[in-house]
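Please, structure for the following, as tokens.
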Amino acid sequence: MKILQTHVDTTVRNSKLINSIVIMMLAAFAAYAQPQTQTATPQISGVIGEVKNIDATANQLIVRAENGVLSTVNINDKTQYKRLPLGEKSLTKAEDIKLADVGQGDRVWARWRSGADQKTTPAAQLVVMSKADLAKKQEQERAEWRRRGVSGIVSSVNPSTQEITVSSKSLMGQAQAVIIPITDKVLMRRYPPDSIPKYSEAKPAKLEEVKVGDQLRALGDKSTDGTHLTAEEVVFGTFKIAGGTVTAIDAPSGQLKITDLQTKKPLTIIIRPDSVLRRFPQGAAMMFGGGMGGPGGPNGQGQGPRPEGQGQGQGQRPQGAGPGGPQGGGQRPGGGGGAGNMADLLERLPLISMGDLKVGDIILMSSLPGADPTQLTAISLVSGVEPLLQMVAARQQGGPSRPQGVDLNGSFGGMFGGVGVP
């Protein structure tokens, strides 16, 4: 199951990508700031973040830190520009560049000498990691999670043995499970509520915080039979799958109103720029039903789709999102993420925008619930899912049944966006 659809502050430096960037830049600036004598050790001060705007005429850059704070960085003809190659941790191999070589989306550390007023004094130096290098680093880490990662729904937590069991289902409905021992060597992080999950923003966590029903991804070495994983990292979150009929659309405010499929009560769905929106196309039930098993499978009489995916309000994947969902990608517990995986198939559904949604559409979506139970922020949302719900209802109950009886979290957890990778 894909568990989910990315910046630096003290709470997010456990991210491998962000942590590696910080280490590189810290080492680089440590080398730059080495005093000529051992009697003075100038402090390094500065701003780390993503370049959002460059105004060469005004000699200014706008840099957004991981916590969202925007800073204006003044520069002048004495400012030094250094590009840190991917993987380097010292300025000894940094390349001298010019302001013209700095681009929007690059990550920089703007550095001032000790005691300087950052608001008025031009930065002494900018160390740059290019957007292209960052993307390459992210793809390398995503590939590692696809190769060495497992994901699914937490089916049990055993405090006495310090083990978590993660389960998923194949397209044929077969359950797969992986046992993950948790030791003090495992880096554990959790996605905060009411957010779009980003790998770099997951918070430090403990085994005691993991609950049955949570979505979880783990990176490590699998046993030969695929039933155990010696984990290096674990990231998880308490996600909720909701569904219902769209009753109103307010595009300017980015909100949908739906009637909840199961409670029949109204729900407000918040669509953010990094929410992922997809549509389940007509005829997809025929396409997906042949490999499902059960009433919608090859031996049954029905047809059933098995879609899942994510789509974004802007038709783009959220920053930090892995190949399987806002942050998810990769293989499922006990096996690969091939054609037999529901999440893989749903991810191939076409992306849409909020403008493509209509009153009367039936949607399924994932969220990280916050304090208000009447309002959910969409991580991934799929419209046109009536055939999918009918197929799942028929399979679960052994014959034609109404979608209202479908256990949404049990049936679709992990498929519509959840915990993911860099």
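The chain has six helices and 21 strands. Confidence is low (pLDDT under 50) at residues 1-44, 289-340.
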